Amino acid sequence: MRKGDVERVRELFTSFLSGIPYTMRRKENEVERERYFQYTFYLIMRLVSVYTVYAEKVQSQGRVDCIVETSDYVYIFEFKLDGTAQEALQQIEEKGYACEYAADRRKVYKIGASFSSETGTICDWGVR
Fold it and tell me: Quick one: CA dihedral 84, 86, 87, 93, positive or negative?
């Protein structure tokens, strides 16, 4: 993340999720299933990095799933369960999640990620 390599982030996160047994994922409630992936991502970011990590960061028009701030980059993540990366990116735009960083000198990456409830990994990824 310190190099701005968002495709490597996807690769590493997908690999990590692939190792979690399917029996560990919640299956009953769709909201809880999406939160499972969101908090798994949050915990990984907190455990493996020294960066500032926000989960469910409240802003003026909504709540961002996850923001990771490094000294040179800001990563704004929106997650969808069995949706599309495009839907997640559209939400980032419509809710103005990046507006808070408009005057920031750091490069901002908007990342939409969709998790598959069937495979337990990332099934779609988009970056702006």
Answer: positive
Q: Which residues pair with 55 in a beta bridge?
A: 66
Query: Which tens digit of pLDDT belongs to each residue from 28-69?
Result: 776 777 888 888 999 999 898 889 999 999 999 999 999 999
What is the DSSP track for 82-109?
SS-HHHHHHHHHHTTTTGGGTT-SSEEE
Cα Dmax for the chain: 45
Beta bridge partners of 111: 77, 127
Contact 111, 78 (CB under 8 A): yes
102 phi/psi in degrees, rounded to 5? -60, -35
Which of the four CATH numbers 3.10.590, 3.40.1350, 2.30.30, 1.10.3470 does domain 6-127 have?
3.40.1350
Q: What is the pLDDT of residue 21?
A: 87
Strand partners, 109: 75
- Percent of the chain whose predicted confidence (pLDDT) is above 70: 98
